[in-house]
Specification:
TIM Barrel, eight-stranded parallel barrel, 8 strands, about 45% helix
C-alpha cells in the first residue's frame, strides 16, 4: 500500500500523553501538527486549553482522553470529565472502556456508561479505547456491539499504557465487527511507515502515534510533497 504524505498525515492523531509532558512539549506537539497537517493532537484534559489556543484556525482537531488510562473511574466522573474538556476546547473524546465491567459481562453497565458519555459529548465524536491486549476476541466483539448501540463514532485498540498495543489481527477484527458504521483507530506501538500503512490496509481509519513525523519521513521521496 502507498499513500502520499498529505494523505497519510490526515490519518494521524499526533499524541503526547506522557505524565511529565510540559507546556513547551505540548506547544511543540501542536506546532508539528500544524506543519505536517495531522488530523488531530491527542492530549490530557489539563492541556486541552493550551492545545486549542495553539491550533485555532489550523484545521487540526484537539482530542482529549477521558478515564485515561485505566477506564475504571465511575461513570459520573467520566461524564463530568467529558463535559469539562469540551468546554476547554476538545473536539474529539478518546474514552477508555470500563474493562473490568466488560470482563464481568456487565454489558448493561457498560452500555449505560457509553450512552452517558456520548450524551454528554453531544455532537463531539467519542472514540472508545478497548485496550484489546486485555480482552478475548469475544469480549472485543461485545465491546464493538455496545459501541455501535451507544452511538460511539470509533473504536480504538489501545491506550499505549498497558501490556500491548495495536496488532493487525485486532484491527482486522474490529473492522469486521463494526463494518462501515464506525471508524477504527489503531494505537500503541505504531512507530514506522511500514507498520502505519499495514494498519491502514488492515482497516484502520485513524492512527494514534507519537511517531507521526518519523512515519511521514519514511515514505519514498516522491510521496513527501505537502
Amino acid at each position: 500500500m502507498s499513500l502520499r504524505a498529505p494523505d497519510l498525515a490526515r490519518f494521524i492523531d499526533h499524541t503526547l500523553l506522557k505524565p511529565d509532558a510540559s507546556a513547551a512539549d505540548i506547544e511543540r506537539l501542536c506546532n508539528e501538527a500544524r506543519t505536517h497537517h495531522f488530523h488531530a493532537v491527542c492530549v490530557h484534559g489539563s492541556r486541552v486549553a493550551l492545545a486549542a489556543a495553539r491550533l485555532e484556525d489550523s484545521g487540526v482537531q484537539v482530542a482529549a482522553v477521558v478515564g485515561f488510562p485505566l477506564g475504571a473511574a465511575d461513570t459520573d466522573s467520566k461524564r463530568f470529565e467529558t463535559e469539562t474538556v469540551i468546554d476547554l476546547g476538545a473536539q474529539e473524546i478518546d474514552l477508555v472502556l470500563n474493562i473490568g465491567r466488560l470482563r464481568d459481562n456487565d454489558h448493561r453497565y457498560v452500555l449505560r456508561e457509553l450512552r452517558d458519555v456520548v450524551e454528554a459529548a453531544e455532537s463531539v465524536p467519542v472514540k472508545l479505547i478497548l485496550e484489546t491486549c486485555l480482552l478475548t476476541d469475544e469480549q472485543k466483539r461485545a465491546a464493538c456491539s455496545l459501541a455501535i448501540e451507544a452511538g460511539v463514532r470509533m473504536v480504538k485498540t489501545s491506550t499505549g499504557f498497558s501490556t500491548g498495543g495495536a496488532t493487525l489481527d485486532d484491527v482486522r477484527l474490529l473492522r469486521a465487527c463494526v463494518g462501515p458504521k464506525l471508524g477504527v483507530k489503531a494505537s500503541g506501538g505504531i512507530r514506522d511507515t511500514a507498520t502505519a500503512l499495514a494498519m491502514i490496509e488492515a482497516g484502520a481509519s485513524r492512527l494514534g502515534t507519537s511517531s507521526g513525523i518519523a512515519i511521514l519521513q519514511g515514505l519514498p521521496a516522491s510521496s513527501e510533497t505537502y
